[in-house]
Specification:
By secondary structure, the protein is of the alpha+beta class. Helices cover 25% and strands 26% of the residues. The protein has two domains: 92 residues, no CATH class; 33 residues. It has two helices and five strands, in the order H-E-E-E-E-E-H. It is elongated and about 75 Å long. Keywords: Cell membrane, Disulfide bond, Glycoprotein, GPI-anchor, Lipoprotein, Membrane, Signal.
Length: 130
């Protein structure tokens, strides 16, 4: 497999690079008149789709609308307003999904930190001779 500039990518590189990118992201920047300024479309992981909608940049007089969808070539229409700028999936996202390793690690560290603070506080209250 080779890229457009003629350089060869390592075997499996493209597959690893696209792994976990099952959602189609679209970002549409427009002037207040509705004229398109720029469009960005790419495959992204779930985390990049958690904030969809439209934002107004008043000092530059732009509106940026972001949408995400799950499926093959699902992001053909451009998001132009809050009705279009949504996150659509083929199936409901599982809220009981297993937590990722960074979330579990952070939770464990916070819990250990709180427990160690409690232990230090209890040992001070009990005194050194207890």
């Amino acid at each position: 497999m080779s890229s457009e500039d003629g350089l060869r990518e390592p075997l499996g590189y493209r597959e690893r690079r696209l792994q976990g990118t099952r959602y189609c992201f679209s970002q549409h920047m427009m002037k207040v008149t509705g004229e398109s300024v720029s469009v960005t479309k790419r495959c992204v992981p779930l985390e990049d789709c958690l904030s969809t909608g439209c934002t107004y940049i008043k000092h530059e007089e732009y509106k940026i609308c972001t949408s995400c969808c799950e499926g093959s070539i699902c992001n053909l229409p451009l998001p132009r307003n809050t009705t279009d700028a949504v996150f659509t999936t083929l199936s409901p996202l599982n809220k009981t999904q297993r937590l990722s390793h960074p979330v579990l690690l952070t939770t464990a560290c916070l819990w250990l930190g709180l427990m160690s603070q409690r232990w230090v506080t209890l040992s001070r209250v009990a005194g050194p001779d207890s």
